Amino acid sequence: MTPITLHGWSLGERSRVDEPLDSKYKLFKQIGVPHSGMSQSHLTIREDLQEEELSVPVHFLDYKEDAHIEQTDTLNIDCIFSTDGEELYEGMGIIVRITDPTRVDKYGEPWKDRMAFAYSIDFDWH
Q1: What are the C-alpha distances in Å from 22 to residues 15, 26, 46?
Q2: pLDDT of residue 6
Q3: Cα separation of 30 and 91, whole Å?
Q4: Count of alpha carbons within 13 Å of 38, Cβ hemisphere only?
Q5: Neighbours of 117 (CB within 10 A)
Q6: Taking the model in full, what pTM does it have?
């Protein structure tokens, strides 16, 4: 096996360079770390969007489904990957990890550490 390096992070012997990755989700799950030395950032939905009671779109990577999320007391969002303006999916440029035990996926499981593409402009960064 050949080591892989992505944005300065070494993936070690986890994968072979010649093995195709069938989705970006596999790659990010495999990496398990933010890129370019970026530490994880806690996000909240922008305050002005909350005041207008608007939800923001995300695209979950696990079941490849679109959803809209609203800020709640139980919602936890962490940015785990951010580009320098490159589009990852339909204009979305960040990957977030979302946990909200009050929401369930299509199989009835609570949202726990679900990764999703999102628009960085929709969030306040902390």
Answers
A1: 13, 7, 33
A2: 43
A3: 23
A4: 18
A5: 23
A6: 0.68
